[in-house]
Structure formats: structure tokens, C-alpha cells
Amino acid sequence: MRVVSGIQPTGNLHLGNLLGAILRWVEMQDRAECLFFLADLHALTVDVEPAQLRANVREMAAALIASGIDPARSTLFAQSAVPAHSELAWLLQCVARVGWLNRMTQFKEKSGKNREGASVGLYSYPVLQAADILLYRPTHVPVGEDQKQHIELARDIAIKFNTDYDTELLVPPEPYIGGGTSARVMSLRDGSAKMSKSDPSDMSRINLSDPDDLISSKIRKARTDPEPLPDDPALLDRRPEARNLVGIMAAVTGESIEGVLGRFAGQGFGTFKPALADAIIALLTPIRRRFAELCADPATLDGQLVAGAERARALGAPTLRAAQEAMGLL
Ligand code: TYM
Prior knowledge:
Helix content is 54%, strand content 7%.
């Protein structure tokens, strides 16, 4: 089993990233050869200050290690430190079709009304993501639900490459999405929008850096309905905000939805919300402590990223070389 996944080093880690991706990556370290990277090239697709980006890469590396990614067992690196990602991306841009990229919902969301003013990189972003994955021929790509379309595109690109060049070099990847609500943690303000670092309202998300009292206040102010919690999970289907909070509780404590409802059925949010805030604080407190320690020693972090990049370069080189040969280069 080989696992590959990435995260954009844009600002802070939030509970959606943690439950949807990172804690699942941590688990997979026991079962698979793992490669995890900070997608700093993807972060360039929108405006970011160079000094800020540099700081974000280090901070995100610290956040991943603090969450349980072990750089001795997993290959942890910055995407830009492995040039083969960019080199394979160009080759794949000549395989991917404009029509395929036109269907990508994330480009439509992120470019908004200003599509003509968006960077070309924001448009071709999913092809770089395909290269990130295909370079390492992984068996599993653990992501949250929002990345599913990008993984399916990587699959289409791999299949077309293999067909066009009569090879089995690229392994069409499958998205590996977690069960339950952790696959799609929703905004605390709107049960129909995902929790996201680009949401203008900070009250919509729980950040790793939030102090305890802010976490309690965000959960207390989270949008809900006046009904008590039901005993049957099916009764949450038409209550997206309630379903989200119950789902977060289940993911944070490791219980099932039924288990959570077993504890809280018949009770209102006045009881549930403080318990949820406590559970989130219990999950984040040790991660935050470790994060602060790691950030105080940037030289060690940098050394770990350099070592990870060296391993990743060696693992990716044969695929890039074979792709170049298949296409008639060299
Ligand atoms: P990014 O940085 O937006 O998110 C990192 C991971 O967190 C998951 N995630 C969520 N899961 C559940 N609920 C949420 N509200 C939520 N928000 C984020 C994402 O699904 C993702 O797994 N394009 C990618 C980074 C990337 C990548 C790759 C991923 C670049 N190359 C190759 C996998 C493989 C991104 O922007 O993720």
C-alpha cells in the first residue's frame, strides 16, 4: 500500500482538514508507505506574499507533525522541493483536455465572477494535482469529499496517457474518502457550505490556533435549530446544522453517530454544545502544545523537510523518466 496526499499551506489548519484528511493520514502510517506534502505550488495560484508563503509552509509542516505525522516514518516534504511534480504536470497538461478542466467546480467557485482575471495556474491547478499523485503510483489518495472531482480527473488523465502511449505506466487513482461526516465537515454558520479556510467569517470554522474560550464561543454561537436531538440518525437528514455538529462530535471522539445520539437524544443544544466544545478542546490541546514546541525550532523542521524531499525525489524520478520516454522525449 502506498499513500499520497497533500495540503495547501495557506494560513491555518482547521477542523475540516484535521478530521477530513490529516487524522486519517496519521492512521494510515501504520499500514502503508506514506508520502505527504505541503502543496506550496498550488498556493501560488492565488495572491500570497512570498514571506507569508514561506512561513505558512513551515507552520503547516509543524501542524502536521503535531497532529501525529511522523517524518521518520512518512515522507514529508514541500511540493516545490521536488521539481518532478512541475515537470510531470507539463507533460500531463498536454494530455488533459480543456473540456475536462472546464468542468472543475472548484475553479468556478474560486474564480467567482472574475474568471478572466484568474491566474492560468488556478485553471490548470488540477493537472498539477494529477501529477502530484501519478508521480508516485499510489494505491490510496486519502482526501475529503471536496477533492473527489480532482482525483477523478487524475484518473481520466492517467487512462488517456496510458491509452495514447500504449503503456500501463500511470496508475489511475481512486479517491479514498472517510466515512461519516468527517468526509465533509460543514461551516458552523451554514450547514450547506463546507468548513473552509477561505470563508470570510472566522466564526464558520475552528482553527488549530484558536484558544479554548474562542472554541467554546464559536460552538455556542454555531447555527442550530430549536429541536432536541433525536435518537434516530435518519431524523437528522433534514437538519443539516444539527447533523454537522453531531458528526463533528462523532469524528472528534471516535464514536458512531448512533453512539452520540444515544448519549444526547432528547436533550437540546444547551447541553450538547458545551460537551462538543469540551471534546474539541480535548482533541486540540495536545496538538496545539506540540505545534508551539515545533515552531520554536525551525531548523529541525527545515531539516526534516529537506530529508523528506530527498526521499520523494528518488521515489518520483523513475515515473517522470518513463513518462518522458513514452512521449518521445530524451
Ligand atoms: P486543501 O488544502 O484545501 O485541504 C487539505 C485536505 O483537507 C480536506 N478538507 C476537508 N475535509 C472535510 N471537510 C472539510 N470541510 C474539508 N476542508 C478540507 C481536503 O479534502 C483535503 O484532503 N488540492 C488540495 C491539495 C492537493 C492534493 C494533491 C491533495 C494538492 N495536490 C494531491 C491530494 C493529492 C487542496 O487544496 O486541499
